[in-house]
Amino acid sequence: MGEKQIRFGIIGCAQIARKVSRAINLAVNSTLYAIGSRSIEKAKKFAIENGLSDSVKIYGSYDEVLDDPYVDAVCMPLPTSLHVQWAVSAAKKKKHLLLEKPTALDTADLDQILEACKSNGVQFMDGTMWVHHPRTAKIKEMLSDNELFGKLKSIHTTSTFYETDEFLENNIRVKPDLDALGALGDVGWYCIGAILWATNNQLPKTVTALPALTRNQAGVILACGCSFNWVGEEEEDEVATFYCSFLSNVSMDLSIYGTNGTIHVKDFIIPYQENSASFDYTSGAKFTELHLGWNVKPNKVEVASEVPQETVMVQDFARLVGNIKNHGGSPDDKWPEISRKIQLVMDAVNKSIDLGFKPVDL
Amino acid sequence: MGEKQIRFGIIGCAQIARKVSRAINLAVNSTLYAIGSRSIEKAKKFAIENGLSDSVKIYGSYDEVLDDPYVDAVCMPLPTSLHVQWAVSAAKKKKHLLLEKPTALDTADLDQILEACKSNGVQFMDGTMWVHHPRTAKIKEMLSDNELFGKLKSIHTTSTFYETDEFLENNIRVKPDLDALGALGDVGWYCIGAILWATNNQLPKTVTALPALTRNQAGVILACGCSFNWVGEEEEDEVATFYCSFLSNVSMDLSIYGTNGTIHVKDFIIPYQENSASFDYTSGAKFTELHLGWNVKPNKVEVASEVPQETVMVQDFARLVGNIKNHGGSPDDKWPEISRKIQLVMDAVNKSIDLGFKPVDL
């Protein structure tokens, strides 16, 4: 283990922890140092099933991970309702925090976490992986090109997958005491994040939930949608819509429409495959003579990825941690600010739903 | 000219008339018989510019076309505000009617036209071309496949193009006295039509305009959006959204999301090219182990078109006219019913906008 390697602890052995532990192992600047579960048996089982090295410490409680002085940073794939308690505890113990999304049940809760990170000088980042993919930077490059794309006019995004009846009754992501935000928190998080990302994190002026909503018997959202609007230059409105669901075939659409260009991504959250990802764009589209066709067809842009996007995320995070740990740097505020805006908008979506799909000003 | 050829008259020499006259000439069962403009000079100019045969009658008024006993059917690419007057007049003179979209300023106006068609036994069809493309039937086949697609959950569609400042001030499509419906009528018509088409013409339960709207100085809509919802089986909501605009790069997206499948079309109104068109679908999409990718990538389906979609439209229409004219058949009610539902929904969108983006029940 190199001196400069950031040592990670993972708290909680949910399904996503498997992906995260693999990502840490693949990251050049990170090492999986410890895992902790509520029982030592569960932690050992996780270690065996995922072929973890014998050098990884196995703990039978979350506290032991946080109390281990060699742990630099923790990943926390816990149910959302447990985030405040364990994230604040981690920050107080000076552990840098890579927190699973949704970051909290609401902004008030998230603020407790962010305040603890700030006052303890630790880096915060949420576990949204797609923003770290090199494709994402390539799309942003195009969005920022006034000639190719022009001014942003509208966005539509979806995040859906189809779940079994068993999941819809029993999974933690639909339990009011564990992940009360349901599909809005689990997959709507990505939609809201993508919309904010595309608008350079400008909060919308109003958030209006779509009058179409499905809940399970416990009242947890299984499917919902929302519209956002901004007032742009020249008093022209910009608009975004999203739809998220546990009840629809897998989709991860991100379509962005500008005055000069259009961008389509169909797998923005999890690319079809790990080593490369693509998106389509048209620019300067016009109709041919007599409107018989188009002057351009979509261009496909392929972007290679040397390592999986979750590994890029871990590397990006570990670099910031390393800067603090080894070079006396300060935490980068960019990441908590992004998470907080997503959470703020999510609160507004929830409020709009509660008000019967009325507009909520931000 | 074969006995069975349907003889068309075109009233008005707008840009779209050029496409329609070409379509009639390409149609196997149709002949362009006469054109009429408000001035004989304009009509002659149109005939020369479009290389019309010398046998085509050139009239300096609309009435002369309608009074010509050899004219079986008329196409009417006139500003929407003139539709009632001229469409009713045509129907009274027993001319079958292929009417440009939007069909009327509102349903009350359209009902006058449909009533005139019904009482005079003439066929009505609106000039929406894309529904006649063989690709459209292929997509519907897939939508109807319970295994491939499953139950419909959501739809998003766009119809946008980017217009010059000159257009936005002077074109008839943004003049309150000519095409008062603006972008909603001109391009939103396609979005509403596509949504109804995908739902087998089930009217939504509620229509709610999106709180994002751009008008020109005369108050005509240049960009707007809307959401629709239905209550499906098991009390689960289905939802659709659209966005239409004269202020955004050309886009014609139709994305349809079901429990088992997803369909994406990016050029649904005017295919990129005339001789074939495609769409993408995924079916049974799942994440691979550890959610590292997808088990399937989109399949592309290419559908060849022997003749342009507008020619298919003319042929479909002329076949119905021929059935009435030559075989004593009755007008097919399917087409006026489709148009009327689109117009009804468009009225509701307008009403929702007028009410400040409140839901409107249908």
UniProtKB/TrEMBL annotation, chains A, B:
Family matches, as Pfam families: GFO_IDH_MocA, GFO_IDH_MocA_C3
Q: Where is the GFO/IDH/MocA-like oxidoreductase domain?
A: 137-263
InterPro entries with a match to the protein in the record: Gfo/Idh/MocA-like_OxRdtase_N (IPR000683), GFO_IDH_MocA-like_dom (IPR055170), NAD(P)-bd_dom_sf (IPR036291)
Q: Which residues form the Gfo/Idh/MocA-like oxidoreductase N-terminal domain?
A: 6-125
Tree of life domain:
Eukaryota
Among the GO molecular function terms of this UniProt record, one is: nucleotide binding
Q: Which family, according to UniProt?
A: Belongs to the Gfo/Idh/MocA family.
- Quote the protein name from its UniProt record: Oxidoreductase
Give the source species: Macleaya cordata
Q: What is the lineage of its organism?
A: Eukaryota, Viridiplantae, Streptophyta, Embryophyta, Tracheophyta
